[in-house]
Write a structure and sequence with these properties.
It is a single chain. The protein has 256 residues and is an alpha+beta fold. The protein has one domain: Alpha-Beta Complex (Aminoglycoside 3'-phosphotransferase, Chain: A, domain 2). A hairpin with a 4-residue loop joins strand 1 and strand 2. The N and C termini lie far apart (44 Å).
Length: 256
């Protein structure tokens, strides 16, 4: 498993990862929940270490294999479809795990820090209604924001006056939150492993799709991967469009 700058191999069977979540126990709790409530291959956390400067490191199982983004051009079309079908099954397993409290896995509400909040450390949200209220405030702000057209013409509204409210019609389900090609390992054991659960938590099911689209865009993922995302996480195009429309308020405007 190739390692990035935040990860170092420290033995034949272990590696250490610098964690940037608010508290490392949140990532550890997410790993444990995924390991016990699903059949998804996930490395074990062996130990958590904090140094004198407050930096936190997680010692985990090393998974022999290759990152998906490093080998994607090589597999056949059928192999790529096998990856997509497997990930689709994984997401459906995650969606069977529910909670009434949004955010990271914990005994109490925690700050949320994912691609879909714009501002760091939003919340905590004690219930689903408070999460909906947060996004609906952003929606209301967005209706008042305008921007120039690309061609230099008249300014246009970021969102129409009749933009729909936040969709909270489906239960909060467990999301990986960062299901990018770099966090998918093709193991030498023939299994597909998911790593880096630092942004995981309980959110609407469509959050997984939107975050996959955003991470693919920021990572410069190939078109062949982008075309598979709607199959893997369901084609939730309407929700993607809604999140894009309120993006200006998430990035720039505070609701208080």
């Amino acid at each position: 498993m190739p390692l990035d700058s935040a990860v170092r191999r420290i033995g034949d069977h272990t590696f250490v990862k610098a964690t940037y979540v608010v508290t490392p126990r949140l990532e550890g709790a997410a790993f444990e929940l995924a390991r016990t409530r699903t059949k998804i291959p996930i490395p074990r956390i062996l130990r958590t270490i904090e140094d004198e400067e407050g930096n936190t490191f997680i010692v985990m199982d090393y998974i022999p294999g290759e990152r998906l983004d490093h080998v994607w051009p090589t597999p056949s079309l059928w192999s790529k479809l096998w990856v997509a079908f497997t990930l689709r099954r994984y997401i459906r397993q995650l969606r069977q795990v529910n909670s009434s409290v949004p955010g990271p896995v914990a005994d109490s509400p925690q700050f949320c820090d994912t691609y879909l909040f714009g501002e760091k450390r939003c919340g905590p949200f004690p219930d689903y209604a408070s999460l909906s209220a947060f996004y609906n405030r952003k929606r209301d702000v967005t209706k008042r924001i305008s921007k120039s057209r690309v061609d230099g013409g008249n300014r246009i509204r970021c969102a129409p006056p009749d933009i729909e409210p936040f969709d909270d019609s489906r239960p909060l389900v467990f999301n990986h939150g960062d299901l990018s090609m770099r966090n998918i390992i093709l193991g030498r054991d023939g299994r597909i492993w998911l790593v880096d659960w630092g942004l995981s938590g309980f959110y609407p099911p469509w959050f997984e799709y939107v975050s996959m689209v955003y991470t693919a865009e920021s990572d410069g993922a190939p078109d062949s991967w982008n075309r598979l995302i709607p199959f893997i996480a369901d084609p939730l195009f309407k929700h993607m469009k809604w999140m894009d429309r309120i993006g200006a308020a998430l990035r720039t405007y505070r609701d208080k």
